Automatic annotation (TrEMBL):
An annotated GO cellular component: plasma membrane
Recorded coiled-coil stretches: none
InterPro entries given in the database record: MetalloPept_cat_dom_sf, Peptidase_M13, Peptidase_M13_C, Peptidase_M13_dom_2, Peptidase_M13_N
Name used for this protein in its record: Endothelin-converting enzyme
Similarity annotation: Belongs to the peptidase M13 family.
Residues annotated as domain Peptidase M13 C-terminal: 498-708
A molecular function (GO) term: metal ion binding
């Protein structure tokens, strides 16, 4: 057996000293008695769980959440301060702009700050009470709705940003990603969040009572709703939603690209579900000169069942349902805590939070600005907290990962030559976006930002701003119809602590927000950057070859490019992941043991295991090339020799996996775990660690585990 190399010196930079102390504190108190091969999550995260308390408004938290909180604190300092005249390192600092550009930059900043301050004006918002929602309901009550035609109501609900019976959206054409088209999917905005919750009588009863109280307090001003009327409305709405839940497809089916790709003409859709008048909705939203071709329908059978359900449901119930969706969708624009109390309690119960918990107002308002004016906020974030050096390091790591994937594919003995060549081509052509957009809009250019948001009018009234930004965003999206796909657009703002792979564009994106300590920094050892950020980057690249992404080619086209022999082997190996994760359990609400859904989480589990394997190989290759071998892979203090702290982890190889484990340290309430298993395509954090290291050959070798073969492996 090859003995892992041992680093004899320690990294004593401030970043290393701080992270070493953090990692050491995160260890389980009895770490010396824990075998990393059998309980690695408890080993590296046991202390983390003891050290971190959940806020009342949190059902779970983890390393990624703490990074988000750190970014939020930075953003709060920016948005509550004066216009920053210059930054310490940015090449596009205001000090490098001409006078006219600086003036526009300050106008953009002022607009963002006005939106934030309007949201923070709790006294004015509370004084209005629920009046802003009543105003919207009054507008909806004037919508013409002839018998059997709910298109006007469905359109109205969509324009105010609330979810409805169907999701009608604009996206790239899976078969021709250079053009945009319209899609129709089952709405994911079902009231309780998961169809499974409608099988719990206690939850359904609480939900019904909460809706009744809101109906009694929030209704069109022309209607005199008594408590008895409100209770009857609530019963009708919840019964209707329960029937919707019963016919909804499973989440695993919705993410199945084959099942959800059903091109249909407008006439065919109108025949499937005539009551919603989808052609009318599309005509109202699309540009005047746009002629729809085929529409992609996610689940035609659901549309047919929904049509039957609507036909047998009283008109008054449908009207009450739309009223409820508006209240539910807009309840965050008001401050009326007593009125909202039962519904707040229910939401918090579902999410595993304390009953009366509400987020701190400044967090709510930051999210409001990020949702509506996120690119202005992004500009000022990256000026302070992202550098050209960061961008270069990110590109370097991703380039190394792409080469590893190419090498892996070329060596696979179960993938035939034709598929190998196509897979390698797909890797080579992946577009990588690092940090922030330089077009659509260019956030380094104040003039471009001003033009981008030119049609928005921000006022001192928070509810008006929410509705205005919602309307603007809807118009922005639908105005893309008939235009070539804009490949420069980003799907996340720069401060976001996340990343994504877009199969239709064959692109990966890593916002500046995730390229931050403690998982990414040029001042940290290579095994930290590769073990944490690199594993995330490898994860996103792997999505191009998971059970969904593998069905798109190098140009982002949904088409079959796998030979039968290779596909059979791929599916056999994928089933291993499904079976493996089906056997993992968590303790959920009511102390019930809940099984993770292996099929629902398959894509993420494949990406986790492939990502860490690729990142480990890329890091090892960087060491073989001698890229900073001595100075860039020194052990952290607290984990080295020389009598300094624990000697549990003795090599950079082991520390690579310690970095990975720390990335996914997570603490959750039983309610939050239940919600995640039912509604999320990601397994809970502790399960992600457990499953991924079980599937890592590198991990088993680094820690000398008895069994070296991974449980499941694709490449």
């Amino acid at each position: 057996m090859k003995v892992p190399r041992v680093a004899q010196a320690l990294c004593m930079t401030p970043a290393c000293v701080q992270l070493g102390a953090e990692y050491a504190a995160n260890l389980s108190p009895n770490h010396a008695q824990i075998d990393p091969c059998t309980n690695f999550e408890e080993l590296v995260c046991g202390g983390w769980n003891l050290r971190h308390e959940l806020r009342p408004d949190q059902g779970s938290t983890g390393t990624i959440d703490l990074m988000s909180e750190d970014n939020e604190a930075k953003l709060r300092k920016i948005i509550e301060g004066a216009y920053p005249g210059e930054s310490s390192h940015s090449h596009f600092s205001p000090r490098n702009l001409d006078t006219a550009a600086v003036s526009i930059d300050q106008q953009n900043f002022d607009m963002m700050q006005t939106a934030y301050n309007a949201c923070m004006d709790e006294a004015s918002i509370a004084k209005l009470g629920v009046a802003p929602i009543i105003t919207v309901l009054d507008q909806m009550s004037k919508v013409f709705a002839p018998p059997g035609d709910y298109s006007g109501l469905a359109l109205f609900v969509k324009t105010v940003g609330a979810s409805s019976l169907l999701s009608i959206y604009v996206d790239t054409d899976p078969k021709d990603p250079d053009v945009t088209l319209i899609g129709v999917m089952p709405s994911t905005g079902i009231g309780l969040g998961s169809k499974s919750y409608y099988e719990d009588p206690e939850l359904v009863s609480e939900y019904r009572d909460a809706i009744a109280q809101l109906f009694a307090a929030i209704h069109p001003s022309s209607v005199n709703t008594t408590p008895v009327d409100a209770a009857k409305q609530a019963v009708d709405v919840v019964d209707f939603e329960t029937k919707i839940a019963a016919i909804m497809p499973e989440l695993s089916d919705l993410r199945d690209v084959v099942k959800s790709y059903n091109p249909m003409s407008l006439n065919e859709i109108a025949k499937l579900i005539p009551q919603l008048g989808i052609p009318k909705i599309i005509k109202a939203l699309a540009p005047a000169n746009y002629t729809p071709g085929n529409i992609i329908v996610g689940d035609p059978a659901y549309l047919s069942k929904l049509s039957s359900l609507i036909s047998e449901t009283p008109r008054t119930t449908i009207a009450s349902y739309f009223q409820w969706k508006v209240i539910q969708g807009l309840e965050t624009i008001v401050i009326a805590r007593e009125t909202m109390k039962p519904y707040t309690h229910l939401k918090n119960k579902l999410r595993g939070r304390e009953p009366d918990a509400v987020s701190e107002r400044w967090r709510t308002c930051l999210a409001h600005v990020d949702d509506g004016l996120g690119w202005i906020l992004s500009r000022f974030f990256i000026e302070m907290y992202f550098s050209a050096r960061d961008k270069d390091l990110g590109n370097e790591i991703i380039a190394a990962l792409k080469q590893v994937y190419i090498d892996k594919f070329n060596k696979l003995d179960w993938m035939d030559a034709e598929v190998k060549a196509a897979a390698v081509e797909k890797i080579r052509t992946i577009e990588q976006k690092i940090g922030y957009p330089s077009a659509s809009p260019n956030i380094t250019d104040p003039v471009d930002l001003k033009d981008y948001y030119a049609d928005i009018n921000i006022t001192p009234t928070y509810s008006d701003n929410v509705l205005s930004l919602t309307s603007w965003a809807l118009n922005q999206t639908w105005s893309d119809l008939g235009k070539p796909t804009d490949r420069k657009e980003w799907g996340m703002t720069a401060p976001t602590v996340n990343a994504y792979y877009n199969p239709s564009l064959n692109e990966i994106a890593f916002p500046a927000g995730i390229m931050q300590p403690p998982i990414f920094s040029g001042d940290l050892p290579g095994y930290i950057n590769y073990g944490s950020f690199g594993s995330v980057a490898g994860h996103e690249i792997s999505h191009g070859f998971d059970d969904s992404g593998r069905q798109y080619d190098s140009k982002g086209r949904f088409q079959d490019w796998w030979t039968n022999a290779t596909l059979i082997e791929y599916e056999r190996r994928s089933k291993c992941f499904v079976d493996e994760f089906n056997n993992f359990t968590v303790i959920g609400s009511g102390n019930r043991t809940i099984s993770v859904k292996g099929q629902q989480t398959l894509g993420e589990n494949i990406a986790d295991s492939a990502g860490i394997s690729a990142s480990y190989a890329a890091w090892q290759e960087s060491r073989r090339k001698g890229e900073g071998e001595d100075e860039n892979n020194l052990l952290l203090p607290g984990f080295g020799f020389n009598g300094n702290g624990t000697t549990l982890f003795k090599t950079p190889e082991q520390m690579f996996f310690v970095a990975y484990g720390n990335l996914w340290c997570t603490k959750s309430t039983p309610g939050a775990l239940t919600s995640q298993v039912l509604t999320d395509v990601h397994a809970p954090g502790q399960i992600r660690i457990k499953g991924t290291v079980m599937n890592s050959r590198g991990f088993r070798e680094a820690f000398g585990c008895k069994v070296r073969e991974p449980t499941c492996e694709l490449w």
